[in-house]
Amino acid sequence: MATVHLIEYEEASPEVRAVYDDIRATRQSDFINNFWKALAHSPEQLKRTWEAVKVVMAPGALGALTKELIYIAISAANSCDYCIHSHTASARAKGMSETQYAELLAVIAMAHQTNGLATAMKVPVDPEFLVGGEGRGSLT
Amino acid sequence: MATVHLIEYEEASPEVRAVYDDIRATRQSDFINNFWKALAHSPEQLKRTWEAVKVVMAPGALGALTKELIYIAISAANSCDYCIHSHTASARAKGMSETQYAELLAVIAMAHQTNGLATAMKVPVDPEFLVGGEGRGSLT
Amino acid sequence: MATVHLIEYEEASPEVRAVYDDIRATRQSDFINNFWKALAHSPEQLKRTWEAVKVVMAPGALGALTKELIYIAISAANSCDYCIHSHTASARAKGMSETQYAELLAVIAMAHQTNGLATAMKVPVDPEFLVGGEGRGSLT
Amino acid sequence: MATVHLIEYEEASPEVRAVYDDIRATRQSDFINNFWKALAHSPEQLKRTWEAVKVVMAPGALGALTKELIYIAISAANSCDYCIHSHTASARAKGMSETQYAELLAVIAMAHQTNGLATAMKVPVDPEFLVGGEGRGSLT
Amino acid sequence: MATVHLIEYEEASPEVRAVYDDIRATRQSDFINNFWKALAHSPEQLKRTWEAVKVVMAPGALGALTKELIYIAISAANSCDYCIHSHTASARAKGMSETQYAELLAVIAMAHQTNGLATAMKVPVDPEFLVGGEGRGSLT
Amino acid sequence: MATVHLIEYEEASPEVRAVYDDIRATRQSDFINNFWKALAHSPEQLKRTWEAVKVVMAPGALGALTKELIYIAISAANSCDYCIHSHTASARAKGMSETQYAELLAVIAMAHQTNGLATAMKVPVDPEFLVGGEGRGSLT
């Protein structure tokens, strides 16, 4: 249960309805997910966050699916249950195959493992990795 | 400074040298980065981790660069300084453009922001996002 | 479901009852929340933690509500579901308005966003921010 | 060392200079801190983030200093070195006394401690803490 | 609810069944826990992870129970609900007494508390703690 | 550099000196590490934290070295650089062998890996793991 009441379209103020309308138009669907209904207590923050999401998640130099995969990975690292579920659903809706999902999970597992090791041993950064160094790639 | 001495090739045991040799052959470079030199105190774990990295980070249903971007994002979420630097260098070596990097950073910023909000408000997961639900995508 | 049985007043040992009695007297309410019932398996830790909470959360140079807002923010960053709910309830009981809550959420969102960015880019700390530097403030 | 070159005013594009100028005007100081110089590689994200910071961190139902204290607490929970230093400097510049800082640190210590305990024991949320429950406050 | 269907023995492929059979033989029990049923979508990762778990969690220079206590502590720090429950059950099955559990929780609380403090104050590492320094112990 | 000046014995107040004296007597060494010198700005918190550390880290149902290993693991999960270094030094001073350290690192790597996977897939907790269930152990 949320710490706030979820604001439905019918009870929303005009500013909130305007954002909900834009969410529906952008997605071409009536569905408004709970995140926005919770955030609607602050119409300014609702609008600002939604406007930013539209800009950031639009396809650009990175594809829309790649952006969703990155979002899932961060949400798992931050233990955000809601975001894990919403962005996994979103990635599937954008065409993520089960093989792609399995590879994403494998990278998640590998990164957490080496993050834990490198942090526990406080491994010093190789000068080659720094900007202005030789810029060699790593396999972790 | 690391919590362990970094083991150089010259002082390494034969099992460790065998892994170092494979790292060099795989990368087609003499460079062995500090992460492996620290892990070399445990030759079994060194070999197991390196073997897994080769499998996981190889191009597959996801491209090699996409995997690096996911790795950077997780490493930032886990505050792993070493991994942030090594995988940012690696992504650049694999062709990440500055525009792609800027978009990665924008997704990192957006995901952390909505992770914080969804967790703080304990937003309940929409049934549509669950497996067996309607599977609708989200814009967060 | 907890990893331990929750110890109710009726079944508690005298040392545990003494802490429960002090919780009730301090709060002027019969309510003992689950956190203490779980911690009661270790009467020493129960007593030590409760005594510290009373000292730390009492109004001082920071007001009691300000302390609750800080507690909510940390609990969200650490993904502690229990603590998010208990301290959001507590902040409301201490008079947090819905506008204050909306502003708290906005700061949570902003801090997570810039934390993610500054960590991902490993931004070096400006000398002006260090003790003994010029001590200039920042807008992040 | 950052993963990106820090963009100084002299080498900045007109859009970036416009943001830098607004930062200087808002702060009534020439000082531009490194966070913005790193973010300037993406003028759109620089402008969007700066505009949001100005809105979010302005005094409102919560005071400017209270917002800084919350920011420090989140930055510590997220291990963001840069943000810890920049917002501690900022809080001092906004008048944080050493006694207030000591109390902030005590709340940080207490919240981390009980976050760890409540999460490790998976303490179930009391119904009284939920919206629509009795809304009783807690001392953690 | 998981983001993936849980694969039961009856519907599993031969490679997956081979791992399930080994799990059952190793544990001398028919019980396959959900973690493996979720991971079974990637037979390669299932096998690799299981093989590693057997090596890592076997008694060695550290006892099997000590390894479980460390696993619980990390899982709590990472807010992994599943892992907290599975490894607390496992530690109990390996003989963890309630007194040992209480002491584990006390260390968890203390470490989180001092982690929060040392990070918030950015305490510099004493040279004595570094490899090649005097190597003196600490009480935190 | 710390966010606070480190208070040396010579400039400390009598209450702070009393704690420093007890630290020296308990350790049978003149060495006072930086953590306490930073915390000394709040004599009450210094004393309370030190008193708790003595109780919690003393050998009991868990040995002193086991407690240090758990502390290291949590500190790595929380990315606390200071605590990683101080407790790794402390574990070595208490007799941790390099083989024990290698096994600790292997458990850290394994736990982070499965934490990431279980969280990303939101694996539901098996009823057998809950208190009052059958209590079967797990290999993760």
Automatic annotation (TrEMBL), chains A, B, C, D, E, F:
Biological source species: Candidatus Entotheonella gemina
InterPro entries, per database record: AhpD-like (IPR029032), AhpD_core (IPR004675), CMD-like (IPR003779)
Pfam families to which the protein is assigned, alphabetical: CMD
Top-level lineage group: Bacteria
Name of the protein in question: Alkylhydroperoxidase
Carboxymuconolactone decarboxylase-like domain location: 46-123
Any one GO molecular function term: peroxiredoxin activity
